[in-house]
Amino acid sequence: MHTIHGKKFDLNLLLAFDALLRERNVSRAAEHLGLTQSAMSHALRRLREFYEDPLFVRIGDAMKPTPFAEEMGDSVLEIVSAVQHKLLAQASFDPMTSTRVFSLCMTDMGELVFLPRLIAELQKVAPHCRIRTSQLPSEHIVNSLERGDTDLAIGSHYIQNPNLFQQELFVHSFCTIISRAYPADELSLEEFLGMKHVSVVLSDSSSRYDQFIDELGHRREIYLTTPHFITVPMILEKNPSLIATVPSELGQTFLRYNAIKVIKTPINSPSLHLRQYWHPRYHHDPGNIWLRQLVKHLFDQYMS
Fold this sequence. Notes:
This protein has 12 helices and 12 strands. The chain is of the alpha/beta class and about 300 residues long. The strands form 3 sheets. It has a 5-stranded mixed sheet, sandwiched between helices. Strands 9-8-10-7-11 form a 5-stranded mixed sheet.
C-alpha cells in the first residue's frame, strides 16, 4: 500500500472500498452499506485522495478497479472480515431496525416457489431489510459465499465442498408436466420415453435435473435444454408433443397458471434434497444466523 505520510485515515473507508469492490457500482455499494449515493461518492473521493490513485474507473455502467485497487482487494477483505466476524462476533442483530440487504443465490424455481413466502415474512419481522437474488453456476457459488457476495445459497445444488456449512430444508420428489391440451392424464413408460423432453440444466458444468432417467438406462429424445424452469410451462402449453419432469413442488406451483397438468412420472424417481449453504467465515455473523433460522422456520412451516 502507499506510504501514509502522516495522513489520517478513517477505517470506515475500508467498508466503502470493500462494497465498491464487490458491487462495481456506486449506487449498489451505497445500498449495501445503507448510505446515500452522495455519501458513497464522497467516500470514494476521500479514498482516491488518500491513495493518490483513481481506484475505480467507470467503464459503461460498471466501476472497474485499477490494478492497485485489485492488489489491495485481498488485504481489505481480510481486514473487513476480521472486524465483522471477530471483533463484532458478539454484536446483536435487530431485525426490526436493520437496513441490511440479504443476498441469496437461488434458481428461478426457488424464486417462484419460496421467495414470495420469504418476502412476506421479512416485511413483517424485518421491515427495513431488503433482498437481492442471483443465479450462479455451481462452480462459482463457493467463491461468492466466501467473499460475502452471497449470504446463503438455497436449492438442490450439487455443491461438493466439505468446507461449507449446509442444512437440509426438506426433501421432495419429481413429477411430470405436460400441456393441458394433451388428451391423456397418464402415460405408460413407453409413451413417456417416446415423447420429446424438455430438460433443465443450470450451467455447462451442471447435470440435468432429470438426469436420473438417463442414469436408469432409459433412452429418450432431449428436444430442448434450458437453464430456466420458469419458461417450461409456457413452452409446453403451446407444444403438446413436449414433456418435462420437474421437482414436485414446482409442478404444483405451475398448476396455478392453468397452462399445464401434472401427471405421475412412470419411473421411480429419487428424492431431491433442498439445502441452504453458507461459508464458515459467516457462521457466527448475527445477521446470517438470524437469516438461516428464518429460512429453516419457513420451510418447516411449508412442509407441516
